[in-house]
Amino acid sequence: MTRFYRLARTQWSAIGLVTLILVCGSLFPLPFRRRPEFERFGPDKVLHFLGYAAFAVLLTDALTDEGLDFAPAGIVSVCSSAAIAVWTGRLQRYVPGRAHERADVVAGILGACGGVLWRFATADSRIGGGERGSNGQESARSAVDARRDRELPRCPRRREANRRG
Predict the structure, then answer these.
(1) Listed residue (59, 60, 73, 65) closest to 3, CA to CA
(2) Residue ranges per structural domain of the chain
(3) φ/ψ of residue 138, rounded to 5
(4) Rounded to the nearest 5 degrees, what angle is found at the Cα of 140, between the Cα atoms of 138 and 144?
(5) For residue 84, what are the CA distances in angstroms to 21, 25, 27, 126?
(6) CB 18 within 8 A of CB 51
(7) Which H or E run contains 22?
(8) CA angle 140–146–147, rounded 5-degree value
């Protein structure tokens, strides 16, 4: 049981740390002047893309380890990323040297979508095991179940709910 709680605490701590980095990185005043040529395509958009991709991958992994199917976990991850991107963008209006840019929000949402899609594409090779469908390909959900069953003991409440339903 200790391993399950330690793993869960570590996963959620990592998500909290990435969220803190995203929010603080977006809300700290810039020490240099804004460059108009970076309005739509600049290095900050790449950082938004990568940061929100990391956030979405971590959140998707944590939610699937908690028992949520991959598709709803991915949707929650992308929606959470979009909410953080819009929220920090709105708050940037009150930070000197910062301005809300739609391109930042778009880069964040695209990064989150890319992160979830990347996690889906690599789930089979990363997780291993699981059942194969009629077309011979392993489903991401069965692979997640196989890993969770192998590595993490079931919560007693979840076991009782599974027996009843």
Answers:
(1) 65
(2) 2-27+41-131+138-153
(3) -80, 135
(4) 115
(5) 12, 12, 12, 28
(6) yes
(7) helix 2-27
(8) 90
Handedness of CA 28, 30, 34, 35 (dihedral sign): negative
pTM of the model: 0.67
Q: Give per-residue pLDDT as tens, 69-100.
A: 999 999 999 999 999 999 998 998 888 877 78
Q: Is residue 143 a contact partner of residue 124, using CB atoms and an 8 Å limit?
A: yes
Residue-wise DSSP of 32-96: S---GGGSSSSHHHHHHHHHHHHHHHHHHHHHHHTT--HHHHHHHHHHHHHHHHHHHHHHGGGST
Q: Which amino acid belongs to residue 121?
A: A
Q: Per-residue pLDDT tens for 121-131?
A: 987 544 444 44
Length of the chain (residues):
165
* Neighbouring residues of 114: CB distance < 8 A, sequence distance ≥ 6: 49, 53
Number of other CB atoms surrounding residue 45 within 10 Å: 20
